[in-house]
Write a structure and sequence with these properties.
Layout lengths: L3 E4 H11 L4 E4 L6 H13 L3 E4 L3 H13 L4 E5 L2 H5 L1 H9 L4 E9 L5 E4 L4 H6 L9 E3 L4 H18 L2 E7 H5 L1 E4 L42 H15 L3 E4 L6 E4 L2 H16 L4 E6 L1 E3 L3 H5 L6 E6 L7 H7 L6 E5 L7 H14 L1
Parallel strand pairs: 2-3, 2-4, 4-5, 5-8, 7-8, 11-12, 11-14, 14-15
Antiparallel strand pairs: 1-9, 5-6, 7-13, 10-12
Helix pairs in contact: 1-2, 1-7, 3-5, 10-13
């Protein structure tokens, strides 16, 4: 199929439709509003439903209802809007409902600002709601990858009966790149034996509730069920990209927009004869721990993120089992600087 030039947010929205998504509920907030704007007219053309809700709370709870009926359902948000959705995400997890949530990350705590940022990592990977849960988290680094992972997000959500979060950012959402869109797929929302629907006389009632009520022992086996579910995800869904890591002494670890800049920094350092590579997590959860076992020659890792505190650093330390040093290079008001990142890698190479 021929490539078309599209903005990241709009390409992601179109990819969701082509994956069979026929329900969207969400509230406008920069830098993700183009998704809502695009689906307001495009969803009509494919026979779906798009609801501009009165709040993010309404958006995630309408998502719950559509997912409970078996639809491929989507909500999107950014910044403080993502915080408001956390209770709803906890309910989705407790009820084993497949759905896709997109967080187009921006900068700062509280209201923050509309600039690019990666300050939601802890919230994305630890779960910002109550209870024991994880969500699968996919982090694209380009408009094309946003398209590809959008389709995969719905497939994974149904594979595990679990919500999947796509973690993009303001840069990827707002930039324009050529993309190849997939063919349109239709989704049969009546194919699930668990989905709620109107019933005829004599049919068994279907109900969506906290899954521990499904066990006749009063939920005693529920903890084992949850642990097995997340273990399966960790064993099967770790994804990452290696870039010049085969002989690297220093490996930068970065995702999303930061990984694009890190690739340029790696090439710059390589021209100077410094053995630097990049490990790019594609899944933020489950974190690609297996990737670190495949890099026994690396002397140190450099966490590169667009935030202040280095939120991913702890996961790098844990994934590497605290075997090698991990340092942090961050930015806040501006994207990571390629030259400064290369200089930091050079300085680390001299020390380690």
């Amino acid at each position: 199929m021929a490539k078309v030039l599209m903005k990241g947010n709009q390409a992601l929205a179109e990819a969701c439709l082509r994956a069979g998504c026929r329900f969207f509920s969400g509230y406008p907030i920069t830098p993700q509003t183009e998704i809502l704007e695009y689906l307001c007219w495009r969803m009509d053309e494919v026979g779906g439903v798009c609801v501009q809700t009165e709040s993010e709370l309404a958006g995630v709870n309408m998502l719950f209802g559509a997912a409970a009926a078996g639809a491929r359902a989507l909500t999107t948000t950014a910044g403080p809007g993502f915080s408001l959705k956390q209770e709803g995400i906890s309910y989705l997890c407790s009820s084993d409902l497949p759905a896709v949530i997109v967080d187009v990350q921006r900068i700062g705590c509280g209201l923050g600002d509309i600039f690019m940022g990666q300050g939601d990592y802890w919230q994305l990977t630890r779960g910002g709601g109550h209870g024991d849960y994880h969500t699968l988290v996919l982090a694209p680094a380009s408009v094309q990858e946003s398209v590809e992972l959008a389709s995969e997000a719905f497939d994974l959500a149904e594979k595990y009966r679990h919500p999947v979060i796509m973690a993009t950012d303001a840069t990827i959402g707002q930039m324009m790149e050529p993309v190849e869109l997939p063919e349109m797929r239709e989704h049969d929302m009546d194919k699930f034996d668990w989905a709620v629907r109107p019933r005829c006389e004599g049919e068994e009632q279907r109900a969506i509730w906290n899954r521990y009520w499904d066990w006749e022992d009063g939920g005693r086996k529920y903890p084992e069920y949850v642990l097995n579910k997340y273990t399966e995800m960790e064993e099967n869904e770790q994804r990452w990209e290696n870039f010049y890591t085969d002989d690297a002494d220093i490996v930068i670890v970065a995702y999303g927009t930061s990984s694009r800049i890190a690739k340029s920094a790696v090439l710059r350092a390589r021209k100077e004869g410094i053995k630097v590579g990049l490990l790019r997590p594609i899944t933020l959860w489950p974190y690609p721990k297996n990737a670190f076992d495949q890099l026994p020659h690396v002397k140190a890792f450099l966490d590169a993120e667009m935030n202040i505190l280095g939120q991913m650093k702890d996961d790098i330390i844990l994934a590497d089992k605290n075997r090698r040093p991990v340092e942090f290079f961050g930015s806040y008001w501006d994207p990571i600087n390629e030259f400064e990142l290369a200089a930091k890698a050079r300085e680390m190479a001299e020390r380690y």
